[in-house]
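Deliverable D2.4 — example input (structure tokens):
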């Protein structure tokens, strides 16, 4: 782990950044916020509002753990802190980021983690990223330093600004320091798999998640999709073969919790469902590859077609939706990754009809510019977003257009 910047260095970085913000504000230039750049593909390109281009503010020189109280399960980290570095500190005390944010090949900062709001397999049982953000400090477009929330869970009146920033892609201000709730590592963890088709996977997960089982993650897909595209992962697949004609895939179920509860779940699934226990090393390689999107599935773009990768969120019990293409289902079916060549409007309409929404996750820049990365907002919700942007970034400086045009 790189040494944290000192308090004096952090103060100097903030002062330099305030000067950059003032220069951009005075010249009418937009500000593009960057960390490791690992999630630059997500969302829309920043819109330069003037012919002078963009002012880029990079947070990587503003890193380190500000405070950590393992007994209170709270850590405060600067925005440029590597997620991997933070997790290394937590692991020394047997603690973790339970929502398992993607690290994209060892890259990814705490600020980017909050700005994108992306969660990994652990979101099924732990909840989303936003539920773990207790507070944060932000630099506004006037250069002012503001603190929202704290280091404990509590109810407050007015905007929950910490949650507003989570997933806002930096359009509301420059995130500086983040207070994060952490959790202990479970006493035991195990993974089993069974063969079923996509519809069966949704039905089974819906049933099991309604029972008091220690399920912490699920994932379904055709076994070919489980192959990792990273040599360091080795063989990350659950099973060496499948019957594609029958659409038979592998459903992986991860149990986490007390040793007795995990062992009881293993015994039940082996006896009642013919489930197969996966070796711990192989299971860890798989879940990490899925979390960090290193599976070959995620790099399966076909330059000869217009197939795009969609990230579709729907209620977990939703049956198979009419969006065709290679798919991986996570979170009991609530998250569905699909490579599809169907028109964007058709994909989004199907997701909306199912009570969810579809995000254009991987696509050429021209396609993202044309279709938009995120589902269009209803007029009332769009007006609310515009009011929030005007209130929290009145000079319209930070990452304009990163989520939607006009924001």
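Example output (designed residues):
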């Amino acid at each position: 782990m790189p040494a944290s910047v000192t308090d004096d260095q952090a103060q100097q970085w903030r002062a330099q950044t305030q000067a950059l913000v003032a220069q951009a504000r005075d010249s009418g230039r937009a500000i593009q916020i960057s960390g490791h750049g690992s999630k630059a593909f997500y969302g829309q390109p920043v819109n330069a509002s003037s012919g002078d281009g963009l002012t880029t503010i990079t947070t990587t020189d503003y890193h380190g753990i500000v405070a950590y109280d393992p007994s209170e399960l709270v850590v405060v980290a600067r925005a440029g802190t590597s997620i991997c570095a933070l997790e290394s500190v937590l692991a020394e005390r047997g603690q973790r980021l339970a929502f398992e944010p993607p690290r994209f090949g060892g890259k990814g900062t705490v600020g980017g983690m909050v700005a994108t709001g992306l969660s990994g397999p652990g979101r099924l049982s732990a909840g989303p990223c936003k539920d773990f953000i207790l507070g944060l400090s932000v630099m506004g477009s006037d250069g002012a330093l503001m603190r929202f929330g704290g280091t404990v869970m509590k109810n407050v009146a007015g905007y929950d600004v910490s949650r507003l920033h989570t997933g806002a892609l930096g359009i509301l201000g420059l995130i500086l320091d983040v207070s994060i709730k952490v959790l202990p590592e479970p006493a035991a963890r195990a993974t089993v798999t069974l063969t079923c088709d996509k519809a069966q996977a949704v039905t089974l997960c819906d049933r099991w998640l309604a029972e008091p089982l220690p399920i912490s993650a699920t994932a379904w897909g055709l076994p070919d999709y489980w192959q990792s595209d990273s040599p360091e992962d080795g063989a990350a697949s659950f099973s060496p073969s499948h019957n594609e004609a029958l659409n038979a895939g592998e459903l992986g179920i991860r149990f986490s919790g007390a040793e007795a509860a995990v062992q009881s779940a293993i015994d039940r699934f082996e006896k009642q469902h013919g489930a197969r226990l996966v070796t711990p090393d192989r299971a860890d390689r798989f879940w990490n590859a899925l979390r960090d999107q290193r599976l070959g599935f995620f790099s399966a773009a076909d330059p000869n077609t217009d197939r795009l990768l969609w990230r579709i969120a729907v209620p977990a019990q939703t049956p198979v939706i009419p969006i065709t293409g290679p798919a991986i289902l996570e979170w009991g079916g609530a998250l569905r990754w699909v490579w599809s060549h169907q028109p964007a409007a058709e994909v989004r309409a199907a997701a909306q009809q199912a009570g969810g929404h579809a995000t254009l996750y991987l696509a050429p820049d021209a396609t993202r510019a044309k279709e938009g990365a995120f589902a269009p907002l209803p007029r009332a919700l769009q007006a609310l977003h515009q009011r929030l942007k005007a209130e929290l970034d009145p000079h319209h400086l930070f990452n304009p257009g990163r989520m939607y045009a006009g924001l």
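The longest strand covers residues 188-196.
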